[in-house]
Amino acid sequence: MSEVIVVTSGKGGVGKTTTSANVGTGLAAMGKKVVLIDTDIGLRNLDVVMGLENRIVYNLVDVVENKCRIKQALIKDKRHQSLYLMPSAQTKDKSAVSPEQMVRMIGQLREQFDYIILDCPAGIEQGFKNAIAGADRALVVTTPEVSAIRDADRIIGLLEANEFKQIDLVINRLRYDMVKRGEMMSASDVVDILSIPLIGIVPDDENVVISTNQGEPLVGNNTMAGRAYQNICYRVAGREIPFIEFDKSVSFWTRVSGIFHKN
Amino acid sequence: MGIKHFFSRRKSREIAKDRLKILLISDRVNCSPEMMEMIKTDIAKVISKYMKIDTQSMEIQISKTGIKGHDSKTPTLYANIPILDLHNK
Q1: B72 to chain A: nearest residue by CA?
Q2: Sign, CA torsion A241/A162/A148/B5
Q3: Which of B53, B23, B31 is nearest to B41 (CA)?
Q4: N- to C-terminal Cα distance for chain A?
């Protein structure tokens, strides 16, 4: 049975595309058949994060307008046999697609894939409505900042109004050192405020920038973010994985630096 | 806590949490913090007719989690009102 997951946040720049790329890649690495769909028409980016920008021939709008078959628009990933990307159109705008067309296309993709992951654009307008139209569940991405959390709350309200049964929270770019100093909200603060189940905490990690530069998702490698995304994939697939305590490594270094500072 | 806490600047984590709590209440019900404050004073006024309450530490909150057995999507108004004396009047 296939599952359609929309990755959304409301606010832009909190890590929807990075999360989509890493969750999709991670699930494919677990042997699942996965298709990533970039629904951000006019501002496509998932292709670049996946490093597949040079292989695009057809896109989502071409599929909906019946200019090509679904299969022609799907780009096979560089490393994973069972991972495909459906790129978005760069030249059209968001009104080029309707929610009904998305539902129909997703219906066809369900026959071939275990997971269909939709990378949602920022905002709550047409693009958002398109992205959530055919989805079964949602991953809401936020950072521990007031603006991102406020938008996430709004999004959660809209998802609930659209009768989403499963909405899970990804907290991105958490800085444990700042939480410790009392200058950043902790994961549990954010969960308390948004009151939806937590599915992952991704620490602020420069390796995310490096992996985006290279066009290769970092899920599964031995970086903090890579491990965090791996765990999110396991949890998405239904495995119970305890949350990693990055806090321990921080406190170790604080202790080491404490020796020199003597405070 | 104690003296050390008293002298230290309020941490931005706490400020963020407090701001968000108020902000989200008005976002969720589409009513302003001023209106929430008015609801709170009115509730306090009515209850005070019957018993002595602690108006300083009373809290009202609109939450969308709902009550058991009810539709979870219904927003619910929670009032947390400490009673100082039940037999005031």
Answers
A1: A160
A2: negative
A3: B53
A4: 57
Residue B7 has pLDDT above 50, yes or no: yes
Rounded Cα–Cα distance for residues A203 and A224 (Å): 7
Using one digit for the tens of pLDDT, what is the confidence trace for B15-57?
Answer: 999 999 888 877 877 767 778 888 899 999 999 999 999 988 8
Cα dihedral sign, A21-A27-A29-A33:
negative
Contact yes or no for B64 and A160 at CB 8 A: yes
Among B17, B21, B27, whose Cβ lies nearest the Cβ of A154? B27
> Å from A155 to nearest chain B CA?
11
Q: At what angle do helices B12-29 and B33-48 cross, to 10 degrees?
A: 80
Which residue among B11, B14, B16 places its CB closest to the CB of A146? B16
Of B11, B14, B24, the CB nearest to A193: B24
How far is A123 from A141, CA to CA, in rounded Å? Answer: 13
Segments of chain A with pLDDT less than 70: 244-263
Please tell me the distance from the alpha carbon of residue A37 to that of residue A40, in angstroms, as a whole number: 9
d(CA A224, CA A22): 13
Instruction: Say which amino acid occupies A57.
Output: V
Interface with chain B: mutation pick from A143, A156, A171, A189, highest number of B CBs within 10 Å: A189
Residue with tokens 């609109």: B62
Interchain CB distance below 8 Å, A146 and B21: no
Q: Which residues of A touch B24 (CB under 8 A)?
A: 150, 153, 193
**Tokens found for residue A86:** 């459906």
- How far from B44 is each of A86, A119, B40, B41, CA to CA, in Å? 57, 47, 6, 5
**pLDDT number for residue B68:** 55
Closest CA to A8 of A110, A116, A115, A159: A159
CA gap A109, A115 in Å, rounded = 9
pLDDT for position A241? 94
The residue length of chain B stands at 89
A172: left (phi over 0), alpha (psi -120 to 50) or beta: beta
